[in-house]
Amino acid sequence: MLVRLKNWINKPSGIEGESDNLLFLTRYLLLFFLAHTIFIGISSAVILLPVHAIIAFAVMMLFHICFQLTYRSGISTVAIIVSVICGFYITCFSLTYGWRSSFPVLLFVVLAYLWYDIAWDMGWKVFFSILSIALFTLIHFFAPAGVTSLSAEHPLFRAIACVNIFFSFTSLSLILYFFCTQFAEAERKLYLYNRQLKKIAETDPLTKLPNRRFALDELKQIENNYVDGGRFVSIAIGDIDFFKKVNDNYGHEAGDLVLSTLAALFASEMDGHGFAARWGGEEFLFVYDHANGDEAYLMLDELREKVSHTAISYGDLTITVNMTFGVEEYGPRAGIDATISAADKKLYLGKSGGRNRVVY
Question: How many CA atoms lie within 13 A of 96 on its CB side?
């Protein structure tokens, strides 16, 4: 039964662009107001205030209509109607039962509810805040502070005051819950969105490897956190031999396939050792964290062998390529830029020395 009631309250309106959080909050508050008006209507009837009992039940019917409107009308419009009805309801019964009945406190619920709606601009929110302050002030001056239709010691008066206080704080807690939930969800979406943007900005779209920007940022962090003697870092640059011939002979789609296939191999082989990044064109950067030059050389030579034995199927064709690598061990005196430059020079030494080799 409770699940069905919850699903009924949380049913979307079907109107495009509506705030679901405001929609559901409005329905829960309307249920609270319905219960409140029923109690006040019965209480007014018991103490022989038939006019006020009729007003309470009339307001109850208006809240019921507003509840039905949430399924087929704009929720911001419904929110304004609900707020106006609440203002009338609170004023009427504050003047009847007096200041000590705690009816005026309900205005804080209305004010918080009005500020919750993100669809309204700041000007409207300030305008309604001023109206709420004015209404609260008028109630303060004109609502009786002493004996009213009920004495302050009357059990029913105390019950009304307790219900008003309980309802006010429960409603405010509900609004704060929805606000915190909405804020947390917005923060989560913003975090995921920013992380996605950062990933897109730092990822090469073809190979799915980190791009040059990511690599330089990571290397800068490595340089800033480097402790001499505490770790080894080696940097290598690899270039696909005669890659232009692949594009010329088989087309750029075949060249893209070669790049993406080798990139997947690099990502797999570098896992746990550091990272590989696309440096530009057919060049790739390899960063071996916690590996000296000799260790990086051995791992790169093993990677070179795997590249040579990787058969890449393109239609009816099988494409194989080789790679040449230059590797340099990082030293804090030389710095990152000088280390990359040294690795690049060794790469070209390997190119001029016959290709398909690792130079250290």
Answer: 23
Contact 250, 347 (CB under 8 A): no
Beta-sheet pairing, 323-329 with 358-359: parallel
> Half-sphere exposure of residue 191, counting CA atoms within 13 Å on the CB side?
6
Give catalytic residues, as residue numbers.
282
Put simply, whether the predicted model's pTM sits higher than 0.70 gets the answer no
Helix (H) / strand (E) containing 276: strand 274-280
Q: Which one-letter DSSP state was computed for residue 210? A: B
Distance, CA of 67 to CA of 71 (rounded, Å): 8
Q: Which 3 state secondary structure label does DSSP give 321? A: coil
Tell me how far apart the alpha carbons of residues 172 and 174 are, in angstroms, rounded to a whole number.
5
Domains of the chain in start order, with CATH, are 2-198 (no CATH), 212-359 (3.30.70.270)
Spatial distance between the Cα atoms of 37 and 90, rounded to a whole number of angstroms: 11
pLDDT tens digit string along 242-261?
Answer: 999 999 999 999 999 999 99
Sign of the alpha-carbon dihedral angle for 343, 348, 349, 350: positive
DSSP state at residue 118:
T
